[in-house]
Write a structure and sequence with these properties.
Helix content is about 40%, strand content about 20%. With about 325 residues, it is α/β, with parallel strands linked by helices. Helix 2 runs parallel beside helix 4, helix 4 runs parallel beside helix 5 and helix 6 packs across helix 10. It is globular.
């Protein structure tokens, strides 16, 4: 298939683009490189460096078999401080993409959604039927895009799948996680081991969990990429299907820190801070629907594997290496 990967110079987008190339597909990456890295674009991919909203129509006019849509602004705190950036950068750009998909008859779309659409859940593990009550502008924009996809797929007959995932970790060879502003726990802990931070903060040790720290679901980025391949294969014309992806079990903050200590051999100092407002105690995905419909299951489910792969990547890769530097 000929596939367009939006945001293919970012963390998840680059790994998915790499897996598509490895699977024999022709891949075009579009990325404005505002947060992505030009050296993260896999060999064999054509890179179009541009704003998605500006080039979606002329690109899809070339003729594609599918789109994998990762391009998005994704910092929760920034989304609350600058909502216009997120409504324009996420929602308006996605609507222009959907217009182009419809206009040029692109038959498949897979969207990188998020568990942030659920907000604070009523039940854990979280099923796809859970109420959607995002607590951030970021989550609200992703939910708005999901609604738009449903409308377009139903009206115009193309096949669409949204994959809602929780915490992504690990690396796929030379493709891994490196953000200018890092907010994810595993890379933050590994930055302490690399001497880029003095310590890691644990926000609360009195949560109603086994060890008192927050529990989150982690999924290996390669498993996530494989789910996108399966979603392309199983997408149904005229339908928009939504799947949660995760391990189905969670790991606590203490487990993450302890595993990073074991893998790196570094003591990784940690200090306890107060709870952060809005942090749920436990977030874990129910992924039975993806397993039943797509035949997907995590092949790299252990925290040790995810941390080991992330650590290998972190030691071999500069902390920040962007084309604009």
């Amino acid at each position: 298939m000929k596939l367009l990967v939006t945001g293919g110079a970012g963390y998840v987008g680059s790994v998915c683009a790499a897996r598509m190339v490895e699977s024999g597909h022709e891949v075009v990456v579009v990325d404005d490189l505002s947060t992505g890295h030009i050296d993260a674009v896999p060999d064999g991919c054509r890179l179009v460096q541009a704003d998605l909203a500006d080039v979606a129509d002329p690109l899809l006019a070339e003729g594609f078999d599918g789109v994998l849509h990762f391009a998005a602004k994704s910092l929760v705190a920034e989304s609350m401080a600058d909502p216009a950036k997120y409504w324009a950068g996420n929602v308006l750009a996605s609507v222009r993409l959907l217009d182009a998909v419809q206009r040029h008859g692109t038959p498949r779309l897979v969207f990188s959604s998020t568990a942030a659409v659920y907000g604070e859940p009523d039940q854990v593990p979280i099923p796809e039927s859970a109420p959607t009550r995002p607590t951030s502008t970021y989550g609200a924009t992703k939910l708005a895009i999901d609604h738009a996809i449903t409308s377009y797929a139903t009206a115009h007959g193309f096949a669409a799948v949204s994959l809602r995932y929780f915490n992504v970790a690990g690396a796929h060879g030379r493709f891994g996680e490196r953000h200018t502003t890092e907010t994810h726990l595993i890379p933050i802990v590994l930055q302490v081991a690399l001497g880029q931070r003095d310590e890691v903060k644990i926000y609360g040790t009195d949560w109603p969990t086994e060890d008192g720290t927050c529990v989150r679901d982690y999924i290996h980025v390669t498993d996530l990429a494989d789910a996108h391949l399966l979603a392309l294969e199983h997408a149904v014309p005229g339908e928009h299907r939504i799947y949660n992806l995760g391990n189905g079990t969670g790991f606590s903050v203490r487990q993450v820190v302890d595993t990073c200590r074991e893998v790196t051999g570094h003591p990784i100092p940690a200090t306890v801070a107060g709870r952060r407002p809005g942090d749920p105690a436990t977030l874990v995905a129910a992924s039975e629907r993806a397993q039943a419909d797509l035949g997907w299951k995590p092949e790299r489910p252990t925290l040790e594997t995810m941390v080991t792969d992330a650590w290998t990547f972190a030691r071999l890769t500069p902390r920040v290496r962007r084309s604009s530097d």
